[in-house]
Amino acid sequence: MRYPAAETAEKHARILEEASRLFRERGFSGVSVSEIMKATGLTHGPFYNHFDSKEELMAESVLHGFKNTLDGLNATNETAKGRAEYVKRYLSAAHRDAPGMGCTMASLSAETRHEPQVRGVFTDRLKAVIEAVATHFPWPSRRSARGDAIRMMASMVGAMILARAVEDERFSDEILSEVRKGLV
């Protein structure tokens, strides 16, 4: 039985949204296709009507996550104050405590190096985010904007990875706070 195109597109979007969330929460290897489909309210069977493989879904999920990152960036005021608010929002306990709703870079970068089908997409999208950050916010010098953007994003993502990795919540909060202070 064939479904209307709009219904098929809606199911595809639901699968992608749930997969992105679950991958950010538990990693690529921590989630099965069956679990993703169950989270969408669909059976396992239709998965292959939407994706050729789990790896294809992983790559598309990374694209989806980076789109959300760029959308959040574009919704931020293009001022020094906007940049400070962006950093504070990113380096928050709320972001740390909700990886499924957060940044793809902080959640999946370590795993991406083991996934050849995902690395190219991740690389392309990271370059796009760096370029967007470099052009979106004001920097002391246009010539150093790309380097400033790389340092800012690497500091933020690294801080989030470390803050999520430690078992001491006060230390985790301190990591986020110190990096925030260094960037704003």
TrEMBL record:
Protein name per UniProt: TetR/AcrR family transcriptional repressor of nem operon
Taxonomic placement: Bacteria, Pseudomonadati, Acidobacteriota, Terriglobia, Terriglobales
Stored Pfam families: TetR_N (PF00440)
PROSITE patterns per UniProt: HTH_TETR_1, HTH_TETR_2
DNA-binding feature ranges: 32-51
GO molecular function: DNA binding
Keywords: DNA-binding, Transcription, Transcription regulation
Residue ranges of domain HTH tetR-type in the record: 9-69
SUPFAM superfamilies noted in UniProt: Homeodomain-like, Tetracyclin repressor-like, C-terminal domain
